[in-house]
From TrEMBL:
Gene3D superfamilies: 2.60.120.1000, 2.60.120.200, Galactose-binding domain-like (2.60.120.260), Laminin (2.10.25.10). Residues 582-619, 992-1030 form the EGF-like domain. Residues 52-74 are annotated as: Disordered. The keyword Signal applies. It comes from Salarias fasciatus. InterPro entries: ConA-like_dom_sf, EGF, FA58C, Fibrinogen-like_C, Fibrinogen_a/b/g_C_dom, Galactose-bd-like_sf, Laminin_G, Neurexin-related_CASP. It is found in: Membrane. Residues 60-69 have a biased composition (Basic and acidic residues). Disulfide bonds join C964-C991. Residues 67-213 form the F5/8 type C domain. Pfam families: F5_F8_type_C, Laminin_G_2. Residues 219-400, 405-580, 827-991, 1049-1223 form the Laminin G domain. Belongs to the neurexin family. The gene is cntnap2a. This is Contactin associated protein 2.
């Protein structure tokens, strides 16, 4: 099998974000805009599962513009090599960009996935970009390729981006060029380009250019024995700021990179531990040991890959930035000190002495380091000039000694076949492997009379030996190890011979597993590693393996993988030789908020149990942001978990929520008992009482910041213990609030006023003082009051300074923090024109983004928000009255998620939208009912790169949004829509009409009252109280007349189940020319009678709902036809609360529905202006006349009727009630017999002031 190179397997994926070749001589360039630290550049054609086509242009950085020299075109032909050549004119030396020599570029003998083009840059170069082009004037070009790089031409490393082995888009013709900047730059000598796909019209064809600049660095080889000691200029160093930078590579998983320590217990250690980088810092613990300074942080993984890695440690006091290969962790050290006290020296490569707290037992570093810098000193340069102590080195070299490992990379379709001894009576095999998968076939061999299998099952090594002879069947099973799918290298050693088998894991002979089962073995002579796909009598339990192997021994002989690579020994399929392409998908950890990351070879998953968050990456909080939000979910007073910043860094915490009639109070308790005694304090030595809360200070600050108002009770009970003393002098006692700021005022007073509440009110027991306690009386006194400046709250400490005199006593009380309101929840803006918008800073949601908001509109469509990048974008939009869409592009092409509502969304009610995108999935949710999701591609771009401002409302020619947006939160930060709206034309701060959505929570006829930032339930006209008018047992209402001839009377006596209320309005006969009517209702049924006022004539007033839920007002009187007013065309029988306010003065009628502007109407000139002989008011039913209708009508009505009377009108008409044979006038209903046809029934307001139909007595 004449296979010359490592191979990868890739499923091509195409993307519109990068240009492809359109002409044979046009250049396709790829810029690497992170620095590269390798010496060889290699082009190779492997088959790898972890891959993706790079079609995403990265932003050019100014630093790379200075490193943009062509590196390949000046090289001689001999610097280019390849897997094969089609003919002499197609040699790799002709593969220079824009050159036409030979046949115009390189083409291999065969166009398959085993070809590669390689260039030797002569020395290590910093590579910033790469460009490709097809073969000149031909049909040959490369459409996809992968880039590998190396220092030595061995041990290749694939170029990674967005957590994947990257595949670049190439050319679409032979003329054009395509250039790519590399987001993760490299330093290399050899580059290898591996075609993955090519022209359908021809074959593989390639010309290339590599861009970059020279690179040089001092290198030191550490042999595992020698240590470099950097001596300080003074004996002891008290360091407040550190900057340490270096680059290293090693094939060892353990080793100390640097270490320093001091006699006071301070230390800093950077080391490799289990192939991860471990940084340990201790700036000191306090003398009691109660505050420990030890801090340990781990980053990275798989760092024993013998490739260069860059480390930067930046410390200022307790703040540390720890950067590995451009991934930065920020943390604060433990303890209370901020100086690093080191003695004598800092050592690199090991620990020359046994450190006190982190001492011996650690290995020294074995590998190479370069560019070591400590606080501005170039350690490697000082070592080269012999300015440092390096006496511990046996053989110090300033070049990197390369190791000779030869890894093999397997995917799900790979196998490696190696020869062994045939017809031998013993098996002896060994190898090292690393993988993330818990299961896989490591080795399989057909014996002369059976099979041998070594597999990974559930993270454990299992060995199955099956031997069948004519006499009997033998089976040996061995099991050892656990958790071996941790990505680390693990060594396997198996020996099997007659009546004996032994399995050893990681060289631990003491824990080796043995078997003495009767056994006879005759080897078959061939071994398959990583996969076996043929039929056999005893098939293996696993068929394939995804991972890497190295140090392979077969029959005690090292496998000659170089010969395998040349095709002279063994065989392989879809493996990559001399490379381990393992990726740690949990590093960096995309699982947020403490979510636990688990991974396989191809993917990772997050376990969010116990974190308080949910979603594919534990990004979204499962709790509401405030008590205000819980109230508007209909919750009552209780303890709740809240998460004020949602997906932000603050964790959830528990608070008490008190939903009162008009406010929502959030209470955070503290641990200071009421009236805590304080003794033994003086001005020189104050007693400091620490006040700790049930939430962290950051969490409490989040409450106070968003609250409308906060307060905290503080009280000082004293006997001969002074508090503040004088307004000008230094106070005996002060308190510390948010931000560790001291405050010299007391409860009931304010900032800058060194007084107590009695001093403000001028009612202190001794008027000479401004605090009761300052009188220094022998009797107990108290100074207490509320602290209400929320920017200062909560109280974190109180320092008491006058309880050390004989007879002095004091007791301190600090109450819980109480805050009301949530400005973030009600922060809203109204967009009044289609072209109006708000703009904010660019949204930073590269790998994880969540957006949530409420909206309400009567428009059928509109863009909620949009943010654009070069080609990336993110957009949320109301696409139609029932469809909300979430669309974005991170480089893999546009993606759109849509949710379809069963009912229109332009109903002028609040609806909630939640959208999230992360590296795993995208989710769109509407009203906690409708949900759509889309998995992210397994291999693809993951970073959302945006550049424009964030536009809320119309933007970029999109259809503008008309309506209100409220509580817009992006990645845990609430955008201040109101503040921006104040200075933006076409946008108004705030939004009225909260009652249309939340009025449903005002029960039992409670009236929803609009507030600027919400609503409240007015229970005045009900028999109920409470925040939602739910406390009570009966209905009542009130009628008010403003004329002396009309006496006020109360309406009572209707049970909770009553469907109709009646009231005799007049004690004597009354004619009206003015009325005021106000009531609210909610119902889900139509047609329905809302209100009817009868008279002793045929005059009447009525408000009814039509069949379609519309409300209509009709005035009847003096006309042949009723005067009908269509109040609203919407369906008001929607179960939501609605309010009607109506007033009439003579012929002028004004009607207001809900929060909409009042509308005026005029009665015709021919109509009468008097409502004669007003008699009875009916709610919900007119006795027996509309029984069918009344049964449909489950109505909550709150009413207040003011009747302005004229002169009394005497009539002999007998007061009557409408019987079951009587209907409203035929203009409202047509009656057939005793049944009323309500097909024309609508929302009707009726005035009848002259008889049209005979009355029924």
């Amino acid at each position: 099998m004449d296979l010359q190179v490592n191979t990868f397997q890739l499923t091509p994926q195409y993307n519109k974000k990068e240009n492809t070749h359109t002409h044979t001589d046009t250049v396709v360039q790829h810029d690497l805009w992170a620095r590269t630290y390798k010496k060889y550049v290699s082009f190779m054609n492997p088959h790898v599962a972890q891959s993706h086509i790079s079609n995403k242009p990265a932003a050019r950085r100014s630093e790379h513009e200075k490193c943009d020299e062509p590196l390949a075109s000046p090289l001689p032909h001999t610097a280019f090599t390849s897997s094969s050549v089609f003919s002499n004119g197609y040699a790799p030396g002709y593969a220079k960009l824009n050159r036409r020599g030979g046949a115009g570029g390189w083409s291999p003998l065969d166009s398959d996935h085993y070809q590669w083009l390689q260039v030797d840059l002569g020395s290590r170069k910093q590579v910033s970009a790469i460009a490709t082009q097809g073969r000149y004037s031909s049909s040959d070009w490369t459409t996809q390729y992968r880039l590998l790089y190396s220092d030595t031409g061995r041990n290749w490393k694939p170029y990674h981006q967005d957590g994947n082995i990257w595949a670049f888009s190439g050319n679409s013709n032979s003329e054009s060029s395509v250039r790519h900047e590399l987001q993760q730059g490299i330093v290399a000598r050899f580059l290898r380009l591996v075609p993955l796909d090519w022209s359908e019209e021809g074959r593989i064809g390639l010309r290339i250019e590599v861009y970059g600049c020279a690179y040089w660095a001092d290198v030191i080889n550490f042999d595992g024995q020698g240590v470099i000691s950097y001596r300080f200029k003074v004996k002891k160093m008290k360091i407040i700021k550190d900057v340490i930078a270096l680059r290293f590579k090693s094939s060892e998983s353990e080793g100390v990179i640097l270490h320093g320590e001091g006699q006071q217990g301070d230390y800093i250690t950077l080391e490799l531990h289990k192939a991860k980088l471990l940084l340990q810092i201790n700036l000191g613990s306090n003398q009691y040991g109660s505050i420990l300074g030890h801090t340990s942080v781990t980053t990275g993984s798989l760092l024993d890959d013998n490739h260069w890695h860059s480390v930067v440690i930046e410390r200022y006091r307790r703040n540390v930035n720890f950067t590995l290969d451009r991934h930065t962790q920020h943390f604060r050290t433990n303890g209370e000190f901020d100086h690093l006290d080191l003695d004598y020296e800092l050592s690199f490569g090991g620990m020359p002495y046994s450190g006190k707290p982190v001492g011996g037992g650690r290995k020294n570093f074995k590998g190479c380091m370069e560019s070591i810098n400590y606080n501005g000193d170039n350690i490697t340069d000082l070592a080269r000039r012999k300015k440092l102590d390096m006496s511990s080195f046996r053989n110090l070299t300033f070049s990197c000694v390369e190791t000779h490992t030869f890894p093999v990379f397997f995917n799900a379709t790979s196998f490696l076949q190696l020869p062994g001894r045939a017809n031998h009576n013993a098996v002896s095999v060994g190898f090292q492997f690393r993988t993330w998968n818990s299961d896989g076939l490591l080795l399989f061999s057909n014996l002369d009379d059976g099979t041998l299998e070594v597999s990974l099952e559930d993270g454990k090594i299992t060995v199955h030996i099956n031997v069948s002879t004519a006499a009997r069947h033998y089976r040996v099973d061995l099991l050892s190890g656990s958790g071996l799918n941790d990505g680390q290298w693990h060594a396997i050693r198996l020996v099997a011979k007659e009546n004996f088998a032994m399995l050893t894991i990681d060289g631990e002979e003491a824990s080796a597993v043995r078997s003495t089962t009767p056994l006879t073995i005759t080897t078959g002579g061939t071994y398959h590693l990583g996969g076996y796909f043929l039929q056999t009598l005893f098939p293996p339990s696993q068929r394939s393996f995804q991972g890497c192997m190295q140090a392979i021994l077969v029959d005690d002989q090292p496998a000659d993988l170089h010969a395998v690579e040349k095709g002279t020994v063994g065989a392989f399929e879809n493996v990559s030789l001399d490379m381990c392409a393992i990726i740690d998908r949990c590093m960096p950890n995309h699982c947020e908020h403490g979510g636990r990351c688990k991974q396989t070879w191809d993917s990772f998953s997050c376990t969010c149990d116990g974190t308080g968050y949910t979603g594919a990456t534990c990004h979204t909080s499962i709790y509401e942001p405030s008590c205000e939000a819980y109230k508007h979910l209909g919750r009552s007073s209780d303890s709740y978990w809240i998460d004020p910043d949602g997906s932000g860094p603050l964790g959830p915490f528990k608070v008490n929520c008190n939903m009162t009639e008009d406010k929502v109070w959030t209470t955070v308790v503290n641990n200071l008992p009421a009236k805590t005694p304080v003794t033994g304090s003086s001005r020189e030595r104050r007693t400091v009482l620490q006040v700790n809360y049930s939430a962290s200070m950051d969490q409490v600050t989040a409450i106070t910041t968003s609250a409308e108002y906060c307060e905290q009770q503080i009280a000082y009970n004293c006997r001969m213990s002074r508090l503040l003393n004088t307004p000008d002098g230094t106070p005996y006692t002060w308190w510390v609030g948010r931000g560790s700021e001291k405050h010299f005022y007391w409860g009931g007073s304010g900032p800058g006023i060194q007084k107590c509440a009695c001093g403000i009110d001028r009612n202190c027991t001794d008027p000479k003082y401004d605090c009761n306690c300052d009188a220094d009386a022998k009797q107990w006194r108290e100074d207490s009051g509320l602290l209400i400046y929320k920017e200062h709250l909560p109280v974190s400490q109180v320092a008491v300074g006058d309880t050390n005199r004989p007879g002095s006593e004091a007791k301190l009380t600090v109450g819980p923090l109480r805050c009301q309101g949530d400005n973030n929840y009600w922060n809203a803006a109204s967009f009044t024109t289609p072209s109006s918008y708000l703009h904010f800073a660019t949204f930073q949601g590269e790998t994880s983004a969540d957006i949530s908001f409420y909206f309400k509109t009567s428009a059928p469509y509109g863009v909620f928000l949009e943010n654009l990048g070069n080609t990336d974008f993110i957009r949320l939009e109301l696409k139609s009255p029932k469809v909300v869409s979430f669309s974005f592009d991170v480089g893999n092409g546009p993606v759109e998620l849509s949710v379809h509502s069963a009912s229109p969304l332009n109903d002028d009610q609040w609806h909630r939208v939640v959208a999230e995108r992360n590296v795993k999935e995208a989710v769109l949710q509407l009203d906690q009912t409708y949900r759509a999701s889309r998995r992210a591609p397994a291999q693809g771009h993951t970073r959302l790169e945006l550049f424009s401002q964030l536009y809320v409302g119309a933007a970029g020619g999109q259809r503008g949004f008309l309506g209100c947006i409220r509580a817009l939160r992006m990645n845990g930060i609430t955008l201040d829509l109101e503040e921006r709206a104040k200075v933006t034309p076409g946008v108004k701060p705030g939004c009225q009409g909260h009652c249309t959505s939340f009025g449903m929570y005002c029960r039992n006829g409670g009236k929803c009252v609009e507030k600027y930032n919400g609503y409240l339930c007015d229970c005045t006209d009900t028999a109920y109280d409470g925040p939602s008018c739910t406390k009570g047992t009966r209905l009542s209402g009130e009628f008010i007349a403003t004329d002396a001839a009309f006496s006020p009377m109360a309406l009572t006596g209707a049970s909770r189940d009553a469907r109709v209320l009646t009231h005799q309005l007049t004690p004597r006969e009354v004619n009206l020319t003015r009325e005021e009517l106000a009531f609210s209702f909610s119902t889900s049924n139509a047609p329905a009678i809302l209100l009817y006022v009868s008279s002793k004539t045929q005059d009447y007033l009525a408000v009814v709902l039509r069949q379609n839920g519309e409300i209509r007002a009709v005035n009847l009187g003096g006309l042949r036809e009723p005067f009908s007013i269509d109040v609203d065309q919407r369906n008001l029988a929607n179960g939501q609360p609605h309010s009607i306010n109506m007033s009439r003065v003579d012929r002028s009628i004004t009607i207001q529905l809900d929060h909409y502007p009042p509308v005026s109407y005029n009665l015709p000139d021919a109509s009468d202006t008097k409502f004669n002989l007003v008699k009875t008011l009916f709610l919900g039913k007119v006795f027996g006349e509309f029984v069918t209708l009344a049964q449909l009508f489950l109505l909550t009505v709150v009413f207040k009727l003011t009747l302005h009377t004229q002169k009394p009108h005497h009539s002999n008409t007998t007061e009557s009630q409408l019987s079951s044979d009587t209907c409203f006038p035929e203009e409202i209903h047509r009656c057939t017999g005793r049944t009323c046809n309500s097909e024309r029934l609508g929302g009707v307001l009726l005035f009848a002031t002259s008889p049209l139909h005979p009355a029924s007595s």
